[in-house]
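I'll show a record.
***
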Amino acid sequence: MSRIGRMPVAVPTGVTVDLKGSHLRVKGPKGEMERDFSPSIQISLENGEVVVQRSTDQATHRALHGTTRALIANMVTGVSSGFEKVLEIDGVGYRAEMSGVNLILHVGYSHPVTIEPPEGISFEVDTKTRQVKIRGFNKEQIGQVASDIRKIRPPEPYKGKGIHYLGEKIRRKAGKSGKGKK
């Protein structure tokens, strides 16, 4: 039995969960999410908790059991408290700023890079620490937006310049040794 899959998902106050077959809709103060799940996994509401059970012990059902429960937990957490991902910008002259709701990055190109936030995502820039905070209620969407921003200027291995996740360990290379062969 999946250790993650068998734990029920507690529904906090202020969050409503509607279940119609394998279609789940979660609504809370931060937003509303809905998703279709596999019909081979049984989802039920019991005493203010969402319970996920599998019908058989097949490998596909075992794989879907924990995944379904984790996705439901992320939906409930997202609409109640939200998620946040932090990116750091390292490099001389590299910086980020806000223009309305858009994020503008100056990361060594001849032009600034402007990023418009998708629906449900907001940016916040701390110019002192050169951090960009990405906030929203959909964990998958936040991760995708953070990944797309990181791809604009990934950290390079020699000086470590670029955009990286907070706490990410950048693998560094030594560079030239200074001794030439003759």
Remarks:
- The chain is about 20% helix and 35% strand.
- The CA atoms of residues 60 and 151 lie 33 Å apart.
- The first helix runs from residue 59 to 80.
